[in-house]
């Protein structure tokens, strides 16, 4: 148990002592003491000196300011040092932490957003700066370092947290060859050298801005290793802004054409305004198994234009995947662009957001390529610029390989292609028969396509297949999907030159619907298709007023009377293990799944009882171990609240609980909940088995004594689980506890165990492994669920005890300047006040103008710190009012 507690202390980010023999090394460019790094007073003024003194396990704490590399490293191994090869080489096992002011005693005291710590490649100090850093690569001037940071064969205990990396320029005037390492990785060159060929630095809370590479990886280039190479970095909460590459990957290049373990975790990041000439405006992945979670790609570009008729093309405005098995979850691709080419798809152009490809040699070395996309949005991406351009959002290009991409709960809206495939373009061919059966088999499940435009053919899909030895290679399946109002002069929703697309349980405009009226030009009728309007809430505003996909105001939600409600195939293969829709709400609410990415939440199905579950809050016992909604028997992973009210559906012969829980201690720790309750019994049947009930407080006991005979009792199915989301990966298997079945899950008045309200309570055992901050942890114990329950009203909205304070948000204007930091925010915000001192009333309103949090606070040095009390992720409005009547307001996004 002590070992488990120690693990969980780490999981929660608790400040831990540095291992024996390791040390903190202090760096402050303004320090005036002994400059030996032993304290803030005696800090090194040079980061290069600190790195030279560091050993495995050491931490380097950096005070705010700008630091320039001073030590030359022969990165390109030409046995000659170049002054521009000055770089910050981070030794194995050393972490750099930025954001200190120079007085802190722990890392938790620093603020890396308010106290920028800049690692700059501007060796001659003449770049054009805005707020201390260059705006973009156009502001780089003169003599800049090839690589700001350099690592070689390092492990996950090596890296940076809370710094800004700018001004690298991997652009030697006379490169030794086209593979000169000084052409790649302007911000960071990660080297996989002999004998390990494994290097996986950790990057957190960092910004890469205005870094350039003449060849590949403007911000980060991870050197491809030979067979068996490895790069499994964790890149968390990091921004890639306006970096550029002359050929491939404006921001980040990872992977190899040789088999290896290339599986970085890229989570909570942003790629904005990056550019590459040929491929991957932001992200290039090859031969990898990356996880890209909760990442936004916007305004990235692959810019090659070839008006002279050459085959010089731009492909993958945001990302380019080659022989990839990457997994993308809850990602947004918005406003990215790529050029096509004037001669043919097989030369690699197009894919406004993503270009995905594989060929025969890559399949021979890597196997099947099966990238997947879950709960992703593709919005206003463009493939244009040459005489032909394909795939406004995505191009699938298979050249005699095996490519099986999958999309579940994804939205494709307002994408545009200059010629073919407003949203998706599929191409395949075989020059000579390979030793295997080539295939291109895209699979779309519960997706929504609307407003996509192709100027020639296929507003939604363009399909160009190929027959090899009498067998069609392109075999696409589309199920539970909406295609509505996608436009092109030829084909409308779908245009097929060759290949097979099977549609089932889908709404396709002008398809004629399944049966005799089906238009065979659309594809193969797999049955249960309909041809009508889907009944969107507001088709003209796909992402809603908050301009964020996946929130409750999205315009592509379905109205209650939509013909797409409860008419899908709940057993579709793509829905296995899927319990949430595009917004994170329960995926199936009625007798069948809805079509499209959104589940309609306002339906009560006759014969079923639907309850909203919320944390019990009528009493607050003075104890440290009282549950919130779910309690786990671990010191840190203990109390969890529902992210929003969960759903408890009683189907009669069984019941299901679905929802998402978030740690009350760390909002980054969350789990998707699926509980299946089976074998329901009344009290007579339950007690005959020698079983009883359990409560914890006098209020619950009083209600139970009166009403336990009216409760329903269930056993917990072994099909139940918790799946880590947010910053936690992994799955916990759940089973009934206690194993003697003396008690079970109980439902009724007082059954939540903590007060006399109607509720659901029960215990369960859990076991499994979760990954958090790069480490795997085996967890095992007993937990409990104790929640209030409210029978769903006609609109399925839980009633409030009291109406919250409400205002019209138009009553106060939003500030243009930054009032709130950070933004987006998680656990707390820092508010800049007009005066250094004084009392302010601070209010937080939701999108509807309801006051969610109010406090009176005293400004200290022009700031107010406000803890965010269990606000669900979404858009809010912060308003402060001084005693003199000065009022300021600003939007803030809570992650």
Q: Could you characterize the architecture of this molecule?
A:
The structure is a single chain. The chain has a 15-stranded parallel beta sheet with strand order 1-2-5-8-12-17-22-26-30-34-39-44-50-53-55, covered by helices on one side. It has a 13-stranded parallel beta sheet with strand order 3-6-9-13-18-23-27-31-35-40-45-51-54, with no helix packed on it. It is mainly β. Helices cover 4% and strands 36% of the residues. Mean pLDDT is 87; it is low at 1-20, 618-627 and 794-812. The protein starts with a helix and ends with a strand.
List the topology elements.
Layout: H1 2-11, E1 24-27, H2 47-53, E2 59-63, E3 65-67, E4 88-89, E5 95-100, E6 117-120, E7 149-152, E8 159-161, E9 164-166, E10 169-170, E11 188-191, E12 202-204, E13 207-209, E14 212-213, E15 220-222, E16 229-231, E17 234-236, E18 239-241, E19 244-245, E20 252-255, E21 260-262, E22 265-267, E23 270-272, E24 275-276, E25 283-286, E26 291-293, E27 296-298, E28 301-302, E29 319-322, E30 327-329, E31 332-334, E32 337-338, E33 354-359, H3 360-366, E34 372-374, E35 377-379, E36 382-383, E37 394-399, E38 402-403, E39 406-408, E40 411-413, E41 416-417, E42 424-429, E43 439-440, E44 443-445, E45 448-450, E46 453-454, E47 461-464, E48 467-468, E49 471-472, E50 475-479, E51 482-484, E52 494-498, E53 500-504, E54 507-508, E55 524-525, E56 609-615, E57 630-632, E58 639-642, E59 646-650, E60 654-663, E61 669-681, H4 683-688, H5 698-707, E62 712-716, E63 721-726, E64 728-736, E65 745-749, E66 758-772, E67 775-791, E68 820-821, E69 828-832, E70 838-845, E71 851-859, E72 863-867, E73 874-882, E74 887-894
Parallel strand pairs: 1-2, 2-5, 3-6, 4-7, 5-8, 6-9, 7-11, 8-12, 9-13, 10-14, 11-15, 12-17, 13-18, 14-19, 15-20, 16-21, 17-22, 18-23, 19-24, 20-25, 22-26, 23-27, 24-28, 25-29, 26-30, 27-31, 28-32, 29-33, 30-34, 31-35, 32-36, 33-37, 34-39, 35-40, 36-41, 37-42, 38-43, 39-44, 40-45, 41-46, ...
Antiparallel strand pairs: 48-49, 56-59, 56-67, 57-58, 57-67, 58-60, 59-60, 60-61, 61-62, 61-63, 62-65, 63-64, 64-66, 65-66, 66-67, 68-69, 69-72, 70-71, 70-73, 73-74
């Amino acid at each position: 148990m002590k070992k488990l507690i120690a693990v969980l202390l780490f999981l929660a980010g608790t400040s831990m002592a540095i291992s024996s023999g390791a040390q903190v090394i202090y760096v402050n460019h303004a320090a005036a003491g002994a400059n030996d790094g032993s304290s803030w007073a005696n800090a090194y003024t040079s980061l290069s000196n600190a790195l030279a003194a560091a050993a495995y396990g050491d931490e380097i704490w950096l005070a705010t300011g700008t630091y320039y590399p001073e030590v030359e490293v022969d990165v390109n191994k030409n046995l000659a040092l170049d002054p521009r090869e000055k770089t910050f080489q981070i030794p194995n096992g050393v972490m750099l932490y930025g954001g200190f002011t120079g007085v802190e005693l722990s890392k938790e005291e620093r603020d890396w957003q308010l106290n920028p710590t800049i690692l700059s490649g501007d060796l001659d100090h003449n770049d054009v700066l805005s707020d201390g850093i260059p705006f973009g690569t156009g502001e780089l001037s003169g003599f800049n370092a090839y690589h700001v940071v350099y690592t070689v064969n390092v492990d996950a205990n090596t890296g940076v947290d809370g710094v800004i990396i700018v001004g690298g320029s991997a652009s030697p005037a006379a490169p030794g060859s086209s593979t000169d390492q000084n052409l790649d990785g302007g911000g960071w060159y990660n080297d996989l050298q002999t004998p390990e060929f494994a290097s996986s630095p950790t990057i957190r809370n960092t910004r890469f801005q205005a870094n350039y590479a003449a060849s590949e990886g403007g911000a980060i280039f991870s050197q491809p290793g030979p067979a068996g190479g490895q790069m499994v970095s964790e890149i968390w909460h990091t921004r890639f802004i306006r970096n550029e590459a002359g050929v491939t990957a404006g921001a980040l290049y990872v992977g190899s054409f040789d088999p290896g373990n290339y599986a970085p975790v890229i989570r909570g990041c942003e790629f904005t305004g990056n550019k590459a000439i040929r491929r991957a405006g932001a992200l290039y992945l090859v031969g990898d198994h990356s996880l890209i979670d909760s990442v936004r790609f916007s305004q990235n570009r692959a810019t090659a234009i070839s008006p002279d008729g050459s085959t010089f093309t731009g492909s993958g405005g945001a990302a380019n995947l080659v022989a990839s098995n990457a997994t993308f979850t809850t990602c947004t691709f918005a406003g990215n662009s790529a050029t096509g080419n004037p001669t043919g798809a097989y030369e690699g152009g197009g894919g406004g957001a993503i270009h995905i490809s594989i060929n025969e040699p890559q399949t021979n070395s890597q196997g099947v390529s099966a990238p997947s996309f879950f709960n992703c949005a593709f919005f206003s991406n463009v493939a244009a610029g040459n005489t032909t351009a394909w795939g406004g959002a995505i191009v699938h290009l298979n050249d005699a390989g095996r490519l099986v991409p999958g999309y579940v709960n994804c939205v494709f809206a307002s994408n545009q292609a200059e010629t073919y495939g407003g949203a998706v373009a599929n191409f395949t061919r075989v020059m000579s028969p390979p030793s295997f059966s080539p295939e291109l088999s895209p699979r779309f499940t519960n997706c929504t396509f609307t407003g996509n435009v192709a100027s020639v053919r296929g507003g939604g899909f363009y399909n160009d297949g190929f027959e090899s030895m009498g067998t069609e290679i392109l075999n696409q399946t589309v199920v539970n999907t909406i295609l509505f109002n996608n436009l092109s002069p030829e084909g409308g929703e779908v245009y097929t030159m060759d290949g097979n697309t099977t549609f089932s349980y889908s709404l396709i405009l002008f398809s004629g619907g399944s049966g005799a009226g089906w238009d065979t030009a659309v594809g193969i009728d797999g049955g249960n298709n309909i041809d009508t309007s889907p009944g969107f809430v507001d088709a003209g505003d796909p992402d809603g007023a908050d301009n964020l996909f996946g929130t409750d105001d999205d315009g592509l939600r379905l109205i209650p009377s939509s013909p797409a409600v409860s008419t899908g195939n709940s057993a579709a293969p793509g829905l296995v293990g899927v319990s949430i829709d595009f917004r994170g709400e329960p995926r199936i609410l009625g007798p069948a799944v809805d079509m499209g990415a959104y589940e309609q939440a306002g339906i009560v199905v006759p014969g079923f009882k639907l309850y909203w579950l919320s944390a019990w809050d009528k009493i607050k016992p003075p104890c440290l171990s009282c549950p919130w909604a779910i309690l786990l028997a671990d010191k840190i992973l203990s109390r969890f609240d529902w992210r929003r009210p969960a759903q408890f559906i009683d189907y009669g012969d069984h019941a299901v609980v679905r929802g998402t829980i978030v740690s009350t201690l760390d909002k980054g720790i969350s789990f998707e909940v699926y509980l299946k309750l089976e074998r329901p019994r009344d009290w007579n049947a339950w007690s005959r088995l020698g079983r009883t009930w359990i409560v914890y407080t006098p209020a619950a006991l009083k209600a139970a004594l009166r009403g336990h005979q009216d409760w329903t009792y269930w056993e917990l199915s072994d099909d139940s689980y918790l799946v880590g989301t947010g910053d936690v990966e992994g799955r916990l298997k759940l089973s009934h506890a206690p194993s003697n079945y003396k008690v079970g899950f109980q439902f009724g008045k007082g059954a939540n165990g903590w007060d006399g309200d109607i509720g659901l309570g029960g215990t369960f055992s859990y076991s499994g492994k979760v990954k958090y901050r790069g480490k795997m942890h085996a967890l095992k114990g007993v937990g409990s669920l104790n929640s209030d329950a409210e029978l769903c009203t006609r609109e399925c909205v839980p009633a409030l005890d009291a109406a919250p304070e409400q205002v019209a948000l138009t009553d106060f204007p939003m500030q243009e300047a930054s009032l709130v930091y950070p933004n987006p925010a998680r656990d707390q915000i820092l508010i800049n006040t007009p005066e250094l001192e004084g009392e302010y009333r601070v209010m937080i309103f939701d999108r509807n103008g309801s006051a969610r949090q109010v406090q009176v606070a005293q400004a200290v040095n022009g700031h107010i710190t406000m803890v965010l009390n269990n606000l669900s992720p979404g858009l809010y409005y912060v308003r402060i009012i001084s005693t003199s009547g000065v009022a300021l307001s600003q939007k803030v996004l809570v992650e």
